[in-house]
Amino acid sequence: MIKRLFSYFHQYKKYAILAVICVLAESFFEIVIPLIMADIVDVGVANGDRAYIFRQGGLMLGCALGALVLGIGSARFSALAGQGLGAELRKEEYRKLQSFSFSNIDHFRVSSLVTRLTSDVTNIQNSISTGMRPACRGPFMLVIATAMAFSINGELAVVFLIALPVLGTMLFLIVSHVRPLYQKMQTAIDLVNRIIQENLTAIRVVKAYVRGEYEEQKFEKVNTNLKTQSEKAFRLAALNMPAMQLVMYGTILSLLWFGGRKIQLGGMEVGALTGFLSYVLQILNSLMMISNVFMMLTRSLTSGARILEVMDEKIDLTDDEAQDIEVKRGEIVFDHVWFKYKKEAEEYVLSDISLTIGAGQTVGIIGQTGSAKSTLVQLIPRLYDVTEGEIRIDGVPVKHYPMERLRDSIAMVLQKNTLFSGTLRDNLRWGKEDATDEEIEEACRIACADEFIDRLENGYDTEMGQGGVNVSGGQKQRLCIARAVLKEPKVLILDDSTSAVDTATEAKIRGMLREKLPDMTKIIIAQRISSVRDADQIVILDDGRIKGIGTHAELLQSNSIYQEIYESQKEGADL
Hints:
The protein is an alpha/beta fold and 575 residues long. The chain is 63% helix and 10% strand.
């Protein structure tokens, strides 16, 4: 896992290498300083040689300044490497998300994906920024300082052979128990993000139903759960420091006891013990660094596993069968199509759909709520793949079209209309990036959006705000239709996208589409019969099956479901 995560360093790898070099060089200077100090005491001070003391003192100061400069360099390069790795991970993860189909996204909660893109990546980049120095310095200093300690006095250094296994056992027990707690903590963050996302998305509904207190209670529950899980994890992780201090102080006391006795017996000089204790402190400091690195690594590996789950998600919609072709006319054929969202599901959402839509035709699809009308049209641009059967456009199976070209030739205005932050003009140009002002204005005339754009404060340069909060539902629908028309697709799908528009304006939009775009295949999903009565053919869907195909007059005469819908809407109009 670590190797895979580090493979995303890309151009930031050089900073990681420079950071390692700086850390090792800094550690070398700090290893030399105790030797010089011991030499000053045992030679310079013992012999009263002031010149020697100043000369060696200057050398020690030079080593200290060198270590300072290298320490600053290692901190800078580590920060660059950590932030760079975080940026690359977020970029690659976001790129992978863009290739997800609806089925792939359904495998994760949106709140969890947000956490994996933010909190989990931050854990890893912080571990690099702050952990690279101790991760390199700790083992290096441990090996060198231990070797130097043995070179000064091998008998005293034996104490480490007892201390190290004790510390290692403590660290292993802490890490093995804290890792699953970190996993629970990140999952708890997912839940907090989910509640916040739901509340902010549906804030108008919450206020309309006066459910603010209920939402506060929901948030309090998940927030308390996060607090509890975090406390458990950090409480156990905090035992790392007491365990380290216990071993460290026990080791120092043992060395002072045995070292003092050796000095009394004449088997060791004071300067040698001073230098030895300096190396002991470096060794213990290295052990502390290593233990902290293990704790950071434990949390980072938990976050890394969650990130790699996204990276390793198998994309179920691919261009493996694609050919170098594009949609020319827009004729659509459903050939005995069956569909269900999950392979293990018992029931099909769509069953045995056979339907032919001629190029340039206008087709209406009508049916009760839950009859799978939206699901049917989402199969055309391969937002989902059929389970059985085949969909062909211009006689070619949709799987043979490159997805980018297929979707570029199809424009969908979905039930949930979405506008992005930015100007109105920027939103419209989602349909066509290089659209001229004349093309934008023409698309808005077709969608009858020009009727209100002139009344906006800055016209086409009006800021839409997040989600298009500056316009009404009906205005938002008309802008989304204009955006789709501007795309100049071969197939235009309107999925109940005029539900917030009055019938007169809706009729005007249909007339403009028929007049201005006669060669474009148009599929209109609607709840109102008035929205589809002029279509070339109307498809009746019920419980995922086609229950009738024909014109308004034919269905009104022969189809009982259509008759019921018509009568119910007629009665509603009479009332």
